[in-house]
Amino acid sequence: MELRYMGFDQAQNTRVYKFDGGAKETSAVRYAVSIDMALFLRHRVGIQEGPALCALKLTADFEAQRRGEHALTNEDLAAYVAERTAAKARKKNQYRGGNRGRKPGLGQTPVLWWRR
User: Fold this and answer.
1) Is the pLDDT confidence value at 14 over 50?
2) What are phi and psi of 24, to 5 degrees?
3) Which CA distances in Å does 51 have to 18, 64, 107?
4) Residues whose CB falls within 8 Å of the CB of residue 42, separated by 6 or more in sequence, listed in order
5) What is the pLDDT of residue 91?
6) In terms of Cα–Cα distance, which of 33, 34, 35 is closest to 21?
7) Which terminus of the chain has fewer Cβ atoms in its 10 Å neighbourhood, N or C?
8) 21 versus 54: which is more confidently predicted?
9) pLDDT digit string (tens) for 30-48?
10) Cβ atoms 57, 18 nearer than 8 A
11) Angle of CA points 4, 19, 22, to nearest 5°
Protein backbone atom coordinates (compact mmCIF):
# COMPACT_ATOMS: atom_id res chain seq x y z
CA MET A 1 0.00 0.00 0.00
CA GLU A 2 1.16 3.46 -0.86
CA LEU A 3 0.56 6.30 1.63
CA ARG A 4 0.68 10.00 0.85
CA TYR A 5 0.73 12.57 3.65
CA MET A 6 -2.02 15.15 3.13
CA GLY A 7 -1.59 17.44 6.15
CA PHE A 8 -3.19 17.65 9.54
CA ASP A 9 -6.06 19.18 11.48
CA GLN A 10 -5.84 20.21 15.09
CA ALA A 11 -8.62 20.64 17.63
CA GLN A 12 -7.47 21.74 21.06
CA ASN A 13 -4.75 19.29 22.13
CA THR A 14 -5.36 16.58 19.52
CA ARG A 15 -3.73 16.57 16.12
CA VAL A 16 -5.09 14.37 13.35
CA TYR A 17 -2.66 13.51 10.54
CA LYS A 18 -4.35 12.74 7.21
CA PHE A 19 -3.11 10.28 4.60
CA ASP A 20 -4.41 9.10 1.26
CA GLY A 21 -3.68 5.47 0.60
CA GLY A 22 -4.38 2.64 -1.75
CA ALA A 23 -2.96 0.69 -4.60
CA LYS A 24 -1.90 2.66 -7.67
CA GLU A 25 -4.72 1.32 -9.83
CA THR A 26 -7.50 2.11 -7.32
CA SER A 27 -8.86 5.41 -6.06
CA ALA A 28 -7.35 6.83 -2.89
CA VAL A 29 -8.93 6.26 0.51
CA ARG A 30 -8.51 8.83 3.30
CA TYR A 31 -6.98 7.57 6.57
CA ALA A 32 -6.46 9.54 9.76
CA VAL A 33 -4.18 8.99 12.74
CA SER A 34 -4.74 11.03 15.88
CA ILE A 35 -2.34 11.85 18.69
CA ASP A 36 -2.52 13.83 21.89
CA MET A 37 0.05 16.61 21.49
CA ALA A 38 1.18 16.19 25.12
CA LEU A 39 2.74 12.84 24.14
CA PHE A 40 5.31 14.61 21.95
CA LEU A 41 6.41 16.69 24.91
CA ARG A 42 6.29 13.81 27.41
CA HIS A 43 8.54 11.61 25.25
CA ARG A 44 10.66 14.46 23.87
CA VAL A 45 9.79 13.62 20.29
CA GLY A 46 9.78 16.44 17.75
CA ILE A 47 6.43 17.35 16.23
CA GLN A 48 8.07 17.18 12.81
CA GLU A 49 8.44 13.41 13.36
CA GLY A 50 4.65 13.06 13.62
CA PRO A 51 3.87 12.31 9.95
CA ALA A 52 6.53 9.59 9.69
CA LEU A 53 5.44 7.98 12.97
CA CYS A 54 1.81 8.04 11.84
CA ALA A 55 2.72 6.44 8.51
CA LEU A 56 4.55 3.67 10.39
CA LYS A 57 1.53 3.21 12.67
CA LEU A 58 -0.84 2.94 9.68
CA THR A 59 1.44 0.43 7.98
CA ALA A 60 1.61 -1.69 11.16
CA ASP A 61 -2.17 -1.51 11.59
CA PHE A 62 -2.73 -2.61 7.99
CA GLU A 63 -0.32 -5.53 8.39
CA ALA A 64 -2.15 -6.58 11.57
CA GLN A 65 -5.46 -6.09 9.72
CA ARG A 66 -6.71 -3.52 12.24
CA ARG A 67 -9.54 -1.45 10.84
CA GLY A 68 -11.36 1.55 12.24
CA GLU A 69 -9.77 4.51 13.98
CA HIS A 70 -6.01 4.79 14.23
CA ALA A 71 -4.14 6.60 17.01
CA LEU A 72 -0.56 6.96 18.19
CA THR A 73 -0.53 5.96 21.84
CA ASN A 74 1.77 6.48 24.80
CA GLU A 75 3.07 2.93 24.22
CA ASP A 76 3.81 3.66 20.55
CA LEU A 77 5.92 6.69 21.39
CA ALA A 78 7.65 4.91 24.29
CA ALA A 79 8.62 2.06 21.94
CA TYR A 80 9.86 4.56 19.33
CA VAL A 81 12.02 6.40 21.89
CA ALA A 82 13.42 3.11 23.23
CA GLU A 83 14.40 2.01 19.72
CA ARG A 84 15.90 5.41 18.92
CA THR A 85 17.97 5.30 22.14
CA ALA A 86 19.15 1.75 21.40
CA ALA A 87 20.13 2.75 17.85
CA LYS A 88 22.18 5.68 19.17
CA ALA A 89 23.95 3.38 21.63
CA ARG A 90 24.73 0.85 18.88
CA LYS A 91 26.11 3.61 16.68
CA LYS A 92 28.22 5.00 19.50
CA ASN A 93 29.66 1.55 20.28
CA GLN A 94 30.34 0.93 16.61
CA TYR A 95 32.69 3.90 16.38
CA ARG A 96 34.31 3.42 19.75
CA GLY A 97 37.76 1.95 19.93
CA GLY A 98 41.48 2.43 19.84
CA ASN A 99 43.16 5.73 20.38
CA ARG A 100 40.72 7.65 18.23
CA GLY A 101 40.05 11.19 19.40
CA ARG A 102 42.65 11.20 22.18
CA LYS A 103 46.09 12.69 22.25
CA PRO A 104 48.90 10.15 22.49
CA GLY A 105 50.53 9.84 25.88
CA LEU A 106 54.21 10.49 26.58
CA GLY A 107 56.33 8.05 24.58
CA GLN A 108 53.42 6.82 22.44
CA THR A 109 53.30 7.08 18.68
CA PRO A 110 50.17 8.74 17.33
CA VAL A 111 47.84 6.37 15.49
CA LEU A 112 46.85 7.71 12.11
CA TRP A 113 43.46 6.73 10.79
CA TRP A 114 44.77 5.81 7.34
CA ARG A 115 47.25 3.30 8.82
CA ARG A 116 44.63 1.18 10.61
Assistant:
1) yes
2) -60, -35
3) 9, 20, 55
4) 74, 77
5) 83
6) 33
7) C
8) 54
9) 999 999 999 999 999 999 9
10) no
11) 65
Task: Please report the pLDDT score of residue 110 as a whole number.
Answer: 58
- Phi, psi (rounded to 5 degrees) for 110: -65, 140
Q: Are 70 and 55 in contact (CB under 8 A)?
A: no
E strands present in the chain: 2-11, 14-22, 29-36, 70-71
Surface-to-core class of residue 107, CB atoms within 10 Å of its CB (0-12 exposed, 13-18 middle, 19+ buried): exposed
Scored b (16 or more CB within 10 A) or e, 60-89 reads ebeeeeeeeebebeeebbeebeeeeeeeee
Q: Please give the single-letter amino acid code of residue 61.
A: D
Crossing angle (nearest 10°) for helices 50-63 and 74-94: 110
Sorted by where each begins, the domain ranges of the chain are 2-82
Query: How confident is the model over 57-98, as pLDDT tens digits?
Result: 999 999 999 988 999 999 999 999 999 988 888 887 776 655
Q: Please give the mean pLDDT across all residues of the chain.
A: 85
Between CA 1 and CA 86 the distance in angstroms is 29
